[in-house]
Hints:
The chain has 345 residues and is α/β, with parallel strands linked by helices. The protein is built from ten helices and eleven strands.
Amino acid sequence: xxxxxxxxxxxxxxxxxxxxxxxxxxxxxxxxxxxxxxxxxxxxxxxxxxxxxxxxxxxxxxxxxxxxxxxxxxxxxxxxxxxxxxxxxxxxxxxxxxxxxxxxxxxxxxxxxxxxxxxxxxxxxxxxxxxxxxxxxxxxxxxxxxxxxxxxxxxxxxxxxxxxxxxxxxxxxxxxxxxxxxxxxxxxxxxxxxxxxxxxxxxxxxxxxxxxxxxxxxxxxxxxxxxxxxxxxxxxxxxxxxxxxxxxxxxxxxxxxxxxxxxxxxxxxxxxxxxxxxxxxxxxxxxxxxxxxxxxxxxxxxxxxxxxxxxxxxxxxxxxxxxxxxxxxxxxxxxxxxxxxxxxx
Length: 345
């Protein structure tokens, strides 16, 4: 079944709490001598070292351990790493029960390998939640569907229509394989909430944290009616092509380097050199208030993130932004050179 949550953070927390409830019930049957408290103390979830901070936060709110697993050279979480972690934790008497795999990570838009992770989760009875908050909208285009391969193993899946599908905030679409898992975890039914149509219609208060909810589906319906599938596909393709344009500009300047594969509408780049000069460059860019960039850091390397977000962005905007970046980069590099000459080692 499906439900529209407010954000991907909510969807992750809801999925985790449903998986935790299901795991506790199962483990109580397998270990009747253990209390709920004992079981809770041994539960562990997994995610990659590139996952959004909301996963760690969900684990904190769910009172379970969280292990961030190392990704490969493409910043992808692989099956062998997950398998080793599960075996290690089981040997220590822990109970693995939940994995968050990401399609389009926040730092660099990396994609975890669902085809490797999915079968392991299935074999180990680990709930697989797929967080496609950013990249999920792109799967409306057939050419990007291969990035979704392995989703058939997912127990829950989420993407933010408000990120890239031209829907206003908030609108985060969540799918679950078995609605009973969520309803059983969230079903509290006091007399003042009972009504004559119980069981006849889907009651979404059992699918989320709050009781009330906004009419989010209406604005999604309007977007689908206004643009249609083709209009939304054109929008996604245009923004990815603009990111590719910016990538070409960066690669054409030997002072810069691209730090991650450009797959969607995000280009991760930096000045060749120290983290400090890249921090100075970002500071100058954002203080200028002509364009705004956000940084990230992966394995000690600080870089800048150029994200194509606005539906009205054009090639002229890309060129304009690049000219500003080049000019400010020259100022930063000149200042760094002058500083070195004034302070000989």
